Structures are given as C-alpha cells and as structure tokens.
C-alpha cells in the first residue's frame, strides 16, 4: 500500500518547471523526509499528493487500500476569531471520526489547555499543533506535513516528532514531512529524498546513518583516475580534490582497492555518515 509518482512534472507559466520527472514513493507505516533549498519544489510536490494541485504531467497513483490524505501545508487555515475548540469541532463535523480518536489527538498534541482561546491569540507553535490536529481529524491513511514544527521550542519539537513517529509505526499512517532542520528529519525518517530545482537528486536510506564515510584527498594528477576507480562504491561525491566514499565494513578494503590501481590519497579522514553531510555533498556536487 503506497503512494507512487512516476515521471511526474509540473510546469508554471509554460516555461518554468516546479517539478521535473519526479519518481517518488511513500508507503503506509513509514516516515519519509523531503529536504531541499527554498524553491526546490517541496511544497508543490506536497500539494499534488494532497490533491490541492490537480493538473500535472506523469503519474500519481495510490496502490492498495486507503487513499485519504491529511495535510498541513504552508500556513494552517483557521477561523482566527473563533476558539481552538470551535475550529476542531467544525472540522470534526465535516470529516467525521470517532470521539475517542478525536480526544486522543487533542491529548497527544498537548493542546487541551488552549482550546478556549481564540486562534488569533495563539503562538506560531500552537497554531502548528492545531494544524496537525486538523490534518489528523479524518483519520487519514497518509499525512503530509510541510515544516510542521515551525515556531516550536526544542521540547515541543521533540514531543511532536516522537508522536508522529509513533503514529506511523502504531497506526500504519504513511507520513511525508519536510523541514530545514536536517537533524530532526534524520532522527525520525525511514528514508529521505533530496530535491533541488524540481528534480530528485538522491535518496538517503534510513540505515545509512549506521555507515561511515571516508574523505580521501587526492593530488590533482590522481583525482580523475581515483574518481573512476571509486565508481564501484555507491554514493561517491566530490568536493574539490576530496572524494567522499560511503562504506560499511573495513575501510582497508577501500584503500586496498585504490592501491591495486597505484592510487594513494594524500589525506584520509574517517567519520560517521549523516544526513547533513549527505545533503551538502549532493548540493555541492550538483553545483559543479
């Protein structure tokens, strides 16, 4: 059971692609992160999945049972002069859902003490919590969240991300989430898509943070050959004369492979592979 995109493109003004030939998958029960610079196409992709944008090229399909999508994209839409309780009751009456589910959402998001206040008096963080609650009221199969922790303090962010991760694992909801805080995305995501200028440029697997990276610096004369030899290792990126090689296992295997081709780096640095490193390596590689 999943949402799948195949070669999906969206153009604005007949000249500029917001998305170009995007392949994407979100399975029920998993959390997928979406990261990229401003204007990369994240919000457009989320609006297409949520049904807000309906005209595009390519395919968007829902595989298996369950097609309902709850979303929080850009600024949450409320009745600002009404209370939080009024807003929740209003949308609850539109979308249904049992009262137990309704009460569980309110308690889990920690918004019960704020519901008597008018929404216009809410902080940004509280508006985000209320927006997440409204996205969940219909008990959706999939949840699409664009920067859901904006305006929250560190404790609030940790609480909300933990709750969302439990929803995916315990309720089987497929969650797509974007954020500029890469550490937060890495902590909760099973997979992460990196998007730039409307194109998916790479994917960071959830088990990737268990791997390490060798940063190998080569002389200018050896750089081209080293890059060719290291193509045997998936995910190699280049930054100037430094080649970063993700690997699992003994780093001596990588160095032995190089020495067999008479290649010897002038400097070797070993470190853990993180989403932040992966992200900036891909951004820099795309810029070359």
Feature tags:
13 strands, alpha/beta, 288 residues, four-stranded antiparallel sheet
Could you explain the architecture of this structure?
Strand 1 (2-12) and strand 2 (16-27) form a beta hairpin. A six-stranded mixed β-sheet has the order 5-6-7-3-8-9, with helices on both faces. The longest helix is centred in the middle third of the chain and has 18 residues, at 154-171. It is of the alpha/beta class and 288 residues long. It has helices at residues 42-50, 84-95, 99-109, 124-136, 154-171, 182-188, 220-229, 251-259, 275-287, and strands at 2-12, 16-27, 31-35, 57-63, 69-72, 142-146, 174-178, 191-196, 199-205, 212-217, 237-239, 242-247, 267-272. The radius of gyration is 22 Å and the shape is elongated. The mean pLDDT is 89. The chain contains nine helices and 13 strands. The relative contact order is 0.14.
Outline of the structure:
This protein is an alpha/beta fold and 288 residues long.
List the helices and strands and how they pair.
Layout: E1 2-12, E2 16-27, E3 31-35, H1 42-50, E4 57-63, E5 69-72, H2 84-95, H3 99-109, H4 124-136, E6 142-146, H5 154-171, E7 174-178, H6 182-188, E8 191-196, E9 199-205, E10 212-217, H7 220-229, E11 237-239, E12 242-247, H8 251-259, E13 267-272, H9 275-287
Parallel strand pairs: 3-7, 3-8, 5-6, 6-7
Antiparallel strand pairs: 1-2, 1-4, 8-9, 10-12, 10-13, 11-12
Please summarize the sheet with the most strands. Answer: 6 strands, mixed
Order of strands side by side in the largest beta sheet?
Answer: 5-6-7-3-8-9
Order of helices and strands: EEEHEEHHHEHEHEEEHEEHEH
Q: Which outline best applies?
A: elongated
Strand content: 25-35%
- Low-pLDDT runs of 5+ residues are none
Helix content: 25-40%
Terminal-residue CA separation = 38 Å
Quickly give the structural class: alpha/beta
Given the structure, what is the number of helices?
A: 9
Find the count of extended strands (DSSP E, 2+ residues). 13
Report the radius of gyration as a whole number of Å.
22 Å
Mean pLDDT: 89
């Amino acid at each position: 059971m999943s949402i799948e995109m195949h070669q999906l493109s969206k153009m604005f003004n007949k000249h500029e692609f917001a998305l170009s030939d995007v392949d994407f998958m979100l399975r029920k029960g998993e959390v997928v992160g979406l990261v990229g610079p401003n204007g990369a196409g994240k919000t457009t992709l989320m609006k297409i999945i949520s049904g807000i944008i309906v005209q595009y090229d390519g395919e968007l399909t829902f595989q298996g049972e369950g097609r309902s999508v709850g979303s929080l994209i850009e600024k949450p839409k409320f009745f600002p002069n009404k209370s939080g309780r009024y807003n929740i009751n209003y949308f609850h009456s539109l979308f249904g859902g049992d009262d137990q589910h309704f009460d569980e959402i309110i308690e889990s998001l920690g918004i019960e003490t704020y519901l008597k206040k008018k929404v216009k008096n809410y902080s940004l963080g509280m508006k985000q919590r209320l927006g997440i609650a409204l996205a969940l009221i219909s008990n959706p199969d999939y949840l699409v969240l664009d920067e859901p922790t904006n305006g929250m303090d560190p404790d609030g962010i940790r609480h909300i991300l933990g709750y969302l991760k439990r929803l995916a694992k315990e309720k089987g909801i497929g969650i797509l989430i974007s954020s500029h805080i890469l550490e937060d995305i890495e902590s909760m995501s099973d997979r992460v898509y990196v998007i730039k200028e409307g194109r998916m440029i790479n994917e960071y697997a959830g088990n990737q943070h268990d791997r390490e990276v060798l940063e190998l610096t080569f002389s200018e004369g050896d750089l081209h050959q080293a890059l060719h030899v290291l193509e045997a290792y998936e995910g190699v990126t280049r930054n100037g004369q430094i080649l970063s090689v993700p690997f699992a296992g003994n780093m001596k295997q990588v160095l032995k492979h190089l020495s067999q081709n008479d290649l010897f780096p002038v400097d070797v640095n070993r470190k853990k592979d993180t989403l932040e490193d992966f992200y900036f390596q891909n951004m820099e590689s795309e810029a070359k």
